[in-house]
Amino acid sequence: MKFKKYIFSMLTVFSLTTSCNSFLDIVPDNAPVLDQAFAMRTMAERYLVTCYASIPPSFSLTGNAGLLAGDEFWLSSEATYTGYANWRIALGNQNGDNPLLNFWDGNNGGNSLWIGITNCNVFLENIMSVPDMNDIEKEMWAAEINVLKAYYNFLLLKQYGPIPIRDTNIPIFAPYEESQLPRNSVDECFAYIVNLIDEARPSLMEDVSTPNTETGRITQLVAVALKAEILMYAASPLFNGNVGLEASIRNRDGKVLFDPNFSMAKWQAAATACKEAIDFAHARGKALHTWTPFNQANTYQASTHHQMSIREAFNESSNNAEHIWIDSRSLASGAVQGNFMLPRYTANASTGTLLGFMSVTLNMAEKFYSKNGVPIEEDISYPYNTRYGLTAVPNTDAYRFDLVAGRQTVRLNMDREPRFYASLAFDAGRIYMNQVGSDASAYNVDMRLSGPSGKVNPNFFNWTGYASKKHYNYRTEVAGSNAYTPRVFGYPLIRLANLYLYYAEALNEINGPSAEVYSFIDLVRTRAGLPGVVESWQSFSSNPGKPTTQAGLREIIKRERTCEFALEGIRYWDLLRWKDGIAELNTAITGWNINQSADNAYYRTTLFYTRSFTERDYFTPISLNERRRNPNLVQSGGW
């Protein structure tokens, strides 16, 4: 595909715009080269894709903060995973001099987003001079890049807090002081970003018309959805009325960067944007994804349909009406999927490609609802106090594709919602796969020390006893002959379910519970095979009135987002914008004792690490080098 091929090529013009003294001053004296870059349409298109190249690769196991900086995944050894800067943040190794995941300078696991902004500015300064393009196409491409520039600024804003706004590049021979820009206020940053999107939107194509060549391009659909997400961040506690340590910073001249006053208008703007994005998506055929069996001659349980719909909502790119924007450069190749997939899960296949070292924490396994659609600690019918006790899996159709009949497992793994079984692979569980075209294979999982999916590699192995089903497509094949055939997919940056729950969250913050709030939560729950939120709490919760209060429904929406987007890299950023990091990210990291073979020894909770998340960790510090280059940059709060 032409668009993707250009992305992977990383043409020479990209390298020619990265040499600089400061990442706020990166326009070299290369006018002749730029003349060539925009001398014709084909060259300009290559530069267009170069601008997209700074999107952080979503499937980077080392560079995606959402995957390993939070509490969803864990690794086994610092010695083995030395290059995993995101996990080192979770281990408490972030520092103010040479920060990890440095997307400002572009090191320690991060690529510089300022380079992306610079490339966007270069493109915008030159695109109108291309001779063999009509004005409509030039304006459309310029609009794409303006939204992309807004996105890069947003990524910096949510990671570092208020940032300098640099709408145009600073000439190389300009006085040095012109590049020493201070931070703008939070409100100025959000207003600038949203304005870029609003001005660009009319010139964008509404949606991709030829997915094979345009998937990943910014469209009006992407723009309205991105605006909705950005305004949700602007309205959330981290940026709206924050008076904490991390919001205490001031510029050298005393300028206040965080407005300490809460604004309901920000939630109203977010709700309006979310509804507009949802309506725009619906009008263009977007809907929650539902699974179509590969072999429709087979019959399946309703729970299987729910689980497969949830898995594919994330990991199936073809004909997925739920995906609004995907990272088409970042494909889940065989190597990527193998890092999540358990080794030898077919019991007779052995391949070094399958490592399964991305281990899901026991904490996350407990976040999913019971089969009744409420938290297990609230379910009056769920044996929460004995959830770690062993029990035999009954030989019933209810667990046909979920658990191995007759095997011993903990009660925690039984009677859970479909998203639990759709998201997690674990000992005594089953993995439903399309194996060699049969579409009727569910493989038993044995993760004990003696089991085929246990600790078979001394360096790369599952550390907690839980793995992610979400990160490999069910049509990926591992045959008995050791043949490994992955079905690749692009990483969804925004999907429709996210907009539904954003909208419900915003409405609840404005007016509290309402029929409209319930309806958008229930759209997501119905796809997951759960009753409506009010029905579930009234029938099964120890707090049946919880959905009827604003505070109660706020807690429910947060838990709903955790269950729906589990393991997708969203929870970490949600916890930050809600300012729930201290409450949630200081919990102990635990799992099962994977070095044991007997059930009663394997199923013992094992402490791996006790996290320490403090108030300063809500924002990433700016490096000492960058603060020396630009003394007008004040450090992030607490660093």
UniProtKB/TrEMBL annotation:
Residue span(s) of domain SusD-like N-terminal: 65-226
The entry's keywords: Cell outer membrane, Membrane, Signal
InterPro entries registered for this protein in UniProt: SusD-like_N (IPR033985), SusD_RagB_dom (IPR012944), TPR-like_helical_dom_sf (IPR011990)
A family per Pfam: SusD_RagB
Location(s) in or outside the cell: Cell outer membrane
Signal peptide feature range: 1-24
Top-level taxonomic group: Bacteria
Domain RagB/SusD: 322-639
Entry's family note: Belongs to the SusD family.
Protein name (record): RagB/SusD family nutrient uptake outer membrane protein
UniProt organism field: Sphingobacterium bambusae
Lineage: Bacteria, Pseudomonadati, Bacteroidota, Sphingobacteriia, Sphingobacteriales
